[in-house]
Design goal:
The protein is α/β, with parallel strands linked by helices. It folds into two domains: 395 residues, Amidase signature (AS) enzymes (Alpha-Beta Complex), CATH 3.90.1300; 72 residues, no CATH class. Helix content is 38%, strand content 12%. It contains 15 helices and eleven strands. An eleven-stranded mixed β-sheet has the order 1-3-2-4-6-5-10-11-9-7-8, with helices on both faces. The C terminus is likely disordered. The structure holds glutamine. The site of glutamine (GLN) has 13 residues, from loops.
């Protein structure tokens, strides 16, 4: 058995160019791993083995013709929220169980053009609402480091598949932390770019003013390669930013001597796991060794981020999800008595519990008489949160903290306690409210589970974030660790 699956995109691309192995061999290797580990992990909703092999053969042909694009022939997965032409796209919901997309999302199209091979659609919380993947209508994904634990969410399938070596990289979306939190729980790197940097066209909408796609990879360098292909202006998305895409890889090797890194004091309070705190403090020392200048910053409105988000995100989701009425979109119930019965039963049957509760909250927050008290107030808080960041970025280049307050929790541990589940995103949510870019990268271990460190940058600072993250990864080896032994379920004792 080779170890190709533990290589980075960068390494695979060099190997493919040298002819060490072909994309077909690499793809078959990943398909074999999917076959072997999927029964335990459940990280995919659909896989496309035959199509993947045929795409791999085509990319080998292109390489023989002299094409040497870095992503040519690299097997990846797409979160099942990205529309893929001619393929089932469920968003983790029964509502879209039989939906075959007639078109590709811009991200999918861009990554196809770059030469990637789509191995399958990754499992996710229904309509991207969740932090554990337990809200998927297709069963929860398990964390490859410990099969009794969650992989995080909502891009849990993407993060678990990359961590377990079932694909080289995966796409995700992040509305309140859904790329960074699962990346932290699974010990991989996850980047949430500036709002508008990547087109939202063809991504099934959750909360449109917060949703943003991004890559989940082994390393920051791979994230840079993926982002270069994913990002760009798209006239089909009115919030897409019309700015050229820089080469994120070009400056990745620059020194970070003199980089000003602010430690946010509000992120180190009660509720933060002590082992995570210790790991992050060690990570700070590594950055200091690299020449970073560390200081303290304050984001005083951090405590209001989760409450504001849980008004704004449900409000937007209640509007976005109104299209699933069994008439225009989505599951249709059997033998409806009349139109109102049709809509009522189709929505009741199609949506899961978490989605229903968010639609209720959002509809309430937007209704006449409550709009000012809830929605308008939440938007005002959102502005204060953004101002906190803008003030902090007058002092520092990047803000550092933990990605999550605890390591991966047990499946079922928080299912009956939505508030404790919502607090999982305490460090990630304010970044979405402010539209900023942020990256989570492996920075230690706590009780045998990966710890994620988050770096937050000002708008459009992806190149700087990736540079700092890459330098940290040159200095440390946390990102090279892989889940060696699964300690639960049927894989007991078997290397992943
Ligand atoms: N966990 C958050 C939620 O449930 C964030 C989800 C996301 O980023 N898509 O809404």
């Amino acid at each position: 058995m080779t170890d190709w699956h533990s290589k980075t995109i960068k390494e695979m691309s060099i190997d493919l160019a040298k002819g060490e192995y072909s994309s077909e061999e690499l793809t078959r290797h990943f398909l074999k791993r999917i076959e072997q580990h999927e029964p335990n992990l459940n990280s995919f909703i659909s896989t496309f083995p035959e199509q993947a092999i045929s795409l791999a053969q085509q990319s080998d042909e292109k390489r023989r013709e002299g094409n040497s694009e870095p992503l040519l022939g690299i097997p990846i997965a797409h979160k099942d929220i990205f529309c893929t032409k001619g393929q089932r796209t469920t968003a983790g919901s029964n509502m879209l169980d039989n939906f075959i997309s007639p078109y590709d999302a811009t991200v999918v199209e861009n990554l196809k053009t770059a030469g990637t091979i789509n191995m399958g659609k990754a499992n996710m919380d229904e309509f991207a609402m969740g932090s554990s993947n337990e809200h998927s209508a297709y069963g929860n994904t398990r964390n490859p480091w410990d099969l009794a634990r969650v992989p995080g969410g909502s891009s849990g399938g993407s993060a678990a598949a990359v961590a377990a070596g079932l694909c080289a990289a995966a796409t995700g979306t992040d509305t309140g932390g859904s790329i960074r939190q699962p990346a932290a729980f699974c010990g991989v790197t996850g980047l949430k770019p500036t709002y508008g940097r990547i087109s939202r066209y063809g991504i099934i909408a959750f909360a449109s003013s917060l949703d943003q796609a991004g890559p989940i990879t082994r390393t920051a360098e791979d994230a840079a390669i993926m982002l270069e292909a994913m990002a760009g202006y798209d006239p089909k998305d009115s919030t897409s930013i019309n700015q050229p895409v820089p080469s994120y890889s070009a400056k990745i090797n620059d020194s970070i001597e003199g980089l000003k890194v602010g430690i946010c004091k509000e992120y180190f309070t009660d509720g933060l796991d002590r082992n995570i705190e210790a790991a992050i403090q060690d990570a700070v020392k590594e950055l200091e060794k690299l020449g970073a200048e560390i200081s303290e910053v304050s984001l005083p409105n951090t405590k209001h981020a989760v409450p504001a988000y849980y008004v704004i995100a449900p409000a937007e989701c209640s509007a976005n999800l109104s299209r699933y009425d069994g008439v225009r979109f989505g599951h249709r119930c059997e033998d409806p008595a009349d139109i109102s019965d049709l809509i009522k039963r189709s929505r009741s049957e199609g949506f899961g519990e978490e989605v229903k509760s968010r639609i209720m909250v959002g509809t309430f927050a937007l209704s006449a008489g409550y709009y000012d008290a809830y929605y308008r107030k939440a938007q005002q808080i959102r502005r204060l949160i953004k101002n906190d960041f803008l003030d902090a970025f007058k002092e520092v280049d990047l803000i550092l903290g933990p990605t999550t307050p605890s390591p991966a929790f047990k499946i079922g541990e928080k299912s009956n306690d939505p508030v404790s589940m919502y607090l999982e995103d305490i460090y990630t949510i304010s970044v979405n409210l402010a539209g900023l870019p942020a990256i989570s990268l492996p920075a230690g271990m706590a009780q045998g589970l990966p710890v994620g460190m988050q770096l937050i940058g000002s708008h459009h600072s992806e190149a700087q974030l990736l540079n700092a993250a890459h330098q940290f990864q040159q200095q440390t080896d946390w990102h090279l660790k892989s889940p060696g032994l699964a300690n639960a379920g049927t894989t007991e004792g078997k290397p992943l």
